[in-house]
Amino acid sequence: MATHLPASSFVAMPWRNGGGTTHEVAVDRGGGGGDWQLRWGVSPAKAPQQCAPHGGGSSAAPFRWRLSVAELAGDGPFSPIAGVDRIFFLLAGEGAQLTIGAGAAPVPARRHEPLSFPGEAPVSLTMARGARGRTINLMLDRARARGTVRVVRAGDEPAVLFPRDSSGGGGGGGAISFAIAIGGPARVRLSGRVKRGKKGEAAEYALAEQDALRLGGGAAAAQQLTVLDGAVYLATITAAAAAAAAAAAAAAAVAAAAPAPAPEPAPATPAAPAAAASSTEALTQAGNVAWFGAATLYFGLLPSTAVTWITRPRDRERQGSSLLLATLKHTLRFLGGMNAGMLALSVMLRAARGRAVPLFAAAAERRILYLAFAVGHFSQWLLNVPVAAAGGLRKNLTIQLIFVVDFAMAVLNCKCAADAKDDDAAAAALADCRPDGSNDT
After folding, report:
1. Are 52 and 125 in contact (CB under 8 A)?
2. For labeling, which of 68, 207, 285, 382 is most exposed (least CB within 10 Å)?
3. Comparing C-alpha atoms, which of 39, 20, 16 is closest to residue 356?
4. What percent of the chain has pLDDT over 90?
5. CA distance 240 to 30
6. The model's pTM
7. What local confidence, expressed as pLDDT, does residue 259 receive?
8. CB-based contacts of 280, cutoff 8 Å, min separation 6
9. What one-character DSSP code corresponds to residue 384?
10. How far apart are CA 418 and CA 346, in angstroms?
């Protein structure tokens, strides 16, 4: 079973510090059953886990494994990710060196030669002056996955995928592989293994440079991958063996190499204020969707109904009022169109909340949206002030409702703008739990 993943379909995610760009190939959020997900097809039910300290038998990684291609714009440190093993593979870049561990000597990063290191280690990248680079990065939750990386070129022996003993069971036992064309286009053949002198069915795939081919997943059958032209990066991922022992050994090694951290002071107050702020933001988002949605419906699509709500019967029955009412209906349609734009933004903001989608994850982005919503609500409230001054509120319940709700929503949106913070769940997915915005490939 193979799926062609064109490089042009990968979603680019610029780093906050401008040090590079990540193109995510695939990621397993750890929902069970090998639920690998492509960046452009993330299931809403598979929201990314938030980062947490590693311990108590739970993983600190926000994924089981993650495969990505990164464009490097300069030097910089990698962000530490507890509980994760990383395999760094240089595709392009002059004079690239990795310093793995405090005070360690730089290690040359040679093209098409994988380098492995623990995610907890302090790692920094240096490159020749003015040089840019490109890498493939495989990250593995040490407690739940293990992986291998190698290069297969035309003329090499076929790579055997998913042998029966790869995870203690038949077929692939949930193993999955990715072949990525490197150094130019590649052509590969995927076939069943030779059994009793017979070959299984074969299929050929043409890959443009950096195109990926997903192989296996679930109960994958044993297969052979033959490179006919070019070369491919081949990563194979399986369930971790002896996960608890591996995690304990890695934690012990890190503890031995680093000084013991000072104990953190107990928090003075519980985290209830953060939950309250989140509830306020959720309420405001729902209110924006409902209010702008109602305005779009009744002003834009049902203006005749809206006219009967905001005018008195005796005014509609006056002689010569037909022209005024027709003008009012057209004006309401225009107002409905303006609210439709606000509705679209409100729905996107609400849908993106806490999910692994590259929308409004940064505080500055949401702050701008909330201020725009506040201006929309406040302007409608302000235009009704003359109506209130003339005593119109006492005579029309609809105008009263609009007057009160618009003012309340303006205040709530201003509060959300003032309290806006980076979306932790989206930041974990888009930046690999990068708390400081440093380089992370």
Report:
1. no
2. 382
3. 39
4. 20
5. 13
6. 0.52
7. 52
8. 412, 415, 416, 419
9. T
10. 17
Alpha-carbon distance of 172 to 34, in angstroms, equals: 11
Residue that the structure tokens 């996955």 belong to: 145
Q: Give domain 2-245's CATH architecture.
A: Sandwich (2.60)
Residue 85 pLDDT level (bands cut at 50, 70, 90): very high
Identity of residue 417: A
The DSSP letter of residue 318 is S
Amino acid type, 387: V
Which residue do the tokens 């493939």 mark? 136
Taking the C-alpha atoms of residue 182 and residue 207, their distance in angstroms, rounded to an integer, is: 10
Distance in angstroms (rounded) separating the CA atoms of residues 394 and 423: 43
Q: pLDDT tens digits, residue range 351-395?
A: 776 554 556 767 788 889 889 999 988 888 887 777 666 665 556
- Cβ atoms of 353 and 423 within 8 Å: the answer is yes
DSSP state at residue 296: I
Question: What is the tally of helices (H) and strands (E) in the chain?
Answer: 9, 18
Q: Name which of 190-194, 279-283, 353-357 the model is least confident about.
A: 353-357
Closest CA relative to residue 35, chosen from 25, 23, 45:
45
Neighbouring C-beta atoms of residue 237, cutoff 10 Å: 26
Backbone angles phi, psi at 197, to 5 degrees: 80, 5
Q: Which two tokens stand for residue 141?
A: 């939750």
118, 146, 202, 222, 229 from 151: Cα distances, Å: 22, 18, 21, 19, 13
Q: Where are the domains of the chain?
A: 2-245, 272-427
Cβ–Cβ contacts within 10 Å for residue 404, how many? 13
Handedness of CA 371, 372, 376, 382 (dihedral sign): positive
Tell which residue, 332, 330, 355, 371, has the closest CA to residue 425. 355
- How confident is the model at residue 375, as a pLDDT? 92
Q: List CB contacts of 177: < 8 A, sequence separation 6 or more.
A: 161, 162, 214, 215, 216, 225, 234, 235, 236, 237
The token duo for 93 is: 């870049």
Q: Where are the alpha helices (DSSP H) in 57-148?
A: none
Task: Report whether 140 contacts 237 (CB < 8 A).
Answer: yes
pLDDT digits (tens, 9 = 90+) for 331-347: 778 777 888 888 898 88
Coil, strand or helix at 125? strand
